[in-house]
Amino acid sequence: MSTLLNVQERLRRELAAAAGRCGLSVEADRVHLEVPRDKRHGDYSSNAAMQLAKEVRRPPRALAQQLAETLDCRAAGVERVEVAGPGFLNFYLDTGYLDDILREVLKEKGAYGRRAVPRGSRVQVEFVSANPTGRLHIGHARGAAYGDALCRILEWDGYEVQREYYINDAGNQVHNLAISLEARYFQALGRDVPMPDDGYYGRDVVELAERLVREEGDRYAQMSEEKRYEALKQKGLEAMLQQIRDDLTRFRVRFDRWFSERALYESGAVEETVEELRRRGWVYEADGALWFRSTAFGDDKDRVLIKSDGSYTYLTPDIAYHRDKLERGFDRLIDVWGQDHHGYVGRMKAAVAALGGDPERLVVRLCQLVALYRNGEPVRMSKRTGNAVTMAELMDEVGVDAARYFLLRRSNDSHIDFDLDLAVSQSNDNPVYYVQYAHARICSILRQASERGYPDVDQAAESANLRVLRREPEVDLLKWLGNFPTEVESAAAAYAPHHIVHYLEELAKRFHSFYTSCRVLGEAPEIEVARLALVRGVQWTLRVGLDLLGVAAPEQM
Predict the structure, then answer these.
(1) Would you write out the chain's pLDDT as a tens digit for each of its 557 residues?
(2) Which residues belong to any copy of the Arginyl tRNA synthetase N-terminal domain (predicted)?
(3) Which residues, 6+ apart, have CB-to-CB distance to 7 below 8 Å?
């Protein structure tokens, strides 16, 4: 348990004990504490007296006064307690806990905020899962940044996490890729072959066809139609998937498993899933089709599984895929989808329930749209392809750090207006620059310290008198450092990486304020070494926080 959580637990426990001495009964974990907006009102505030007064029908302020007089301040780590307003209790803590916060950071170093005891819970996160028919675009980039950061945060909070990419390598989209590549291949050979109506017109298909002609000539043209189709389909899939893998690797996203939709068909899992739903009584025939009775589980209408022509709908292999996930024994399944899939959530939860699973085990996070702006004007089209801006183009223009950071600044269900000019500016208005510069500035301070006789700042910090760190900017910084483990836990519980973003921006703000007000080097030795310890603690926290976002912590800028 972190230092700050220990402080809070101690205060709750002693406040509950004080209530007991007043003839009242309250469990410590029911005592509510909050940090007042105005720091003049103490470190923590509680409405415990107001809540208890309702139960015993006593004046809240009088009860608050009695609790304040009865509280064992020393045991609670409280310097003083004041009664405010209608019966709030404001607690001013003994500042010794601030030293413990910094000692904890310096001890944990790059593991600060990480849950020490694993939760014993297995989580699978499936994200991106784009059709392998072209380059990943800006929407996929948002899902990639969100899914990857979420995995990092969940792991830091003690969960066992598996990252998975679902390859849609069966069905119409792959068929259309194959016939598109075939048409482009013949065109590259100089033949007048039209593109199919449902073909993919992206530049990637053209370039792949031209490369096949350069490397293998007319070999595929000599094949039978059936063999050529299968060969080009496989070539197209391999090339597009490699392109996706390369873009994701560059974006600092990795997957533990790439799951093939085609494997579901080849293993018979799709047919088995339909039969299981049939055995459970959740399918029926109507109008020549086979229907899933999803309305029995809250869906707005029943869904077709097998069409009248005998082909499967998109839903059927997706149900089989989620059945496979459930059978792998994950405690929680997290799917990261685009906003255009919002109508799919109810039917997939219905499928999980129909298969005998708990629909609450399935968590779906939808990522809203991203609008790009340059010079205040919307950027809608890729310069290269004429279609949506690709992830690769975004990385080329603003870099991986800025791309990930800007895509993570807001909640996944909020629309993003991405300012390309701001993302590359080197100013305090650029949030990622502002946070990274705080880290780079600390690195500069520590380099200067090393030149001035502190070859090992960590060793010097071990014996530092941290009690001298009591100026307001120092205290504000120490308090905020203590919040980091709780912020990680909160971000994991809410599936909200943007909590970490906001934490880091506030940490950078407090550090820059401290740096402006409190000289680190050139002070009296006792103050100098204590402030070096403080900036070292900030450095560790910035590094950990940025890494949870998949963003670099540069030493120079």
Answers:
(1) 789 999 999 999 999 999 999 988 889 888 999 999 998 999 999 999 998 988 788 899 999 999 999 999 999 999 999 999 999 999 999 999 999 999 999 999 999 999 999 999 999 999 999 999 889 999 999 999 999 999 999 999 999 999 999 999 998 889 999 999 999 999 999 999 999 998 888 888 999 999 999 999 999 999 999 999 999 999 999 999 999 999 999 999 999 999 999 999 999 999 999 999 999 999 999 999 999 999 999 999 999 999 999 999 999 999 999 999 999 999 999 999 999 999 999 999 999 999 999 999 999 999 999 999 999 999 976 655 556 899 999 999 999 999 999 999 999 999 999 999 999 999 999 999 999 999 999 999 999 999 888 878 888 888 899 999 999 999 999 999 999 999 999 999 999 999 999 999 999 999 999 999 999 999 999 999 999 999 999 999 999 999 999 999 999 98
(2) 9-93
(3) 77, 93, 97, 482
- The answer to whether the CB of 431 falls within 8 A of the CB of 505 is yes
All structural domains of the chain, each given as residue ranges with its CATH number in brackets, are 3-94 (3.30.1360.70), 122-168+254-367 (3.40.50.620), 172-250 (no CATH), 428-548 (1.10.730.10)
**Three-class DSSP category at 200:** coil
Sign of CA dihedral 81, 538, 494, 399: positive
Specify whether the CB–CB gap between 158 and 118 falls below 8 A: yes
User: What DSSP state is assigned to residue 129?
Assistant: -
